[in-house]
Amino acid sequence: MKKTGMVRQLDSLGRIVIPKEIRDTMEIGISDPMEFFITEKEIIFRKHKGIQCIFCGSFDDLVYYKDQFICGSCAEQMGDESMHTPLNEMTESPAAQRSLHSALRKSRNKRGEMMTKVESAMQEHPGATQNELARILGISQSRVCQIQKELRAGHHHEL
């Protein structure tokens, strides 16, 4: 691990500000999901990498290339033949393949359900702010923002 020399204090709600220099370097934007890992003495966090194409967000026909998931369509557009190893060929066993496909299905279903819930809440409460929608749905305001962006982009109809 690399030391930055930056120190930040935890506030009364358990929050900590990630310095802008680090966010810029790590390409962490507002509303980006973060994931946490725990060792015996450390907490490590990084930008969450879902099991979907980093370019178009597709869950189908994924290949794994340089620590990223890319769908076959985007890989073809990029024209790099080294990317065309299907994800299921990279897992060691049939059990691992079943587990990965199960996780993909669950992720798609959960994402679709949450998009539908946000869409319904927006229709039921047309003047509601993101914070109000978040309270109604029991999710974070940043997740509401993220889903609204996807809905505006028309990704909901692809599910």
Would you give an account of this structure?
The chain is an alpha+beta fold and 159 residues long. The chain is 43% helix and 11% strand. It has a domain of 41 residues: Ribbon (Pemi-like Protein 1, Chain: D). The chain is built from six helices and four strands; from the N terminus they run H-E-E-E-E-H-H-H-H-H. The strands form two sheets. A two-stranded antiparallel sheet has the order 1-2. Strand 3 and strand 4 form a beta hairpin. Helix 4 packs across helix 6 and helix 5 crosses helix 6. The radius of gyration is 19 Å and the shape is flat.
What key attributes describe this structure?
6 helices, two-stranded antiparallel sheet, 4 strands, single chain, Pemi-like Protein 1, Chain: D, two-stranded antiparallel ribbon, alpha+beta, 159 residues
- The overall average pLDDT, rounded, is 77
Major sheet summary line: 2 strands, antiparallel
Question: How far is the first residue's CA from the last residue's CA?
Answer: 39 Å
**C-alpha geometry:** flat
C-alpha Rg, in Å?
19 Å
> What is the annotated CATH architecture of the domain at 8-48?
Ribbon
Beta-strand percentage range = 5-15%
Q: Report the count of strand segments.
A: 4
Q: Please give the CATH class of the domain at 8-48.
A: Mainly Beta
Regions with pLDDT < 50 over 5+ consecutive residues? Answer: none
Give the strand line-up of the largest sheet: 1-2
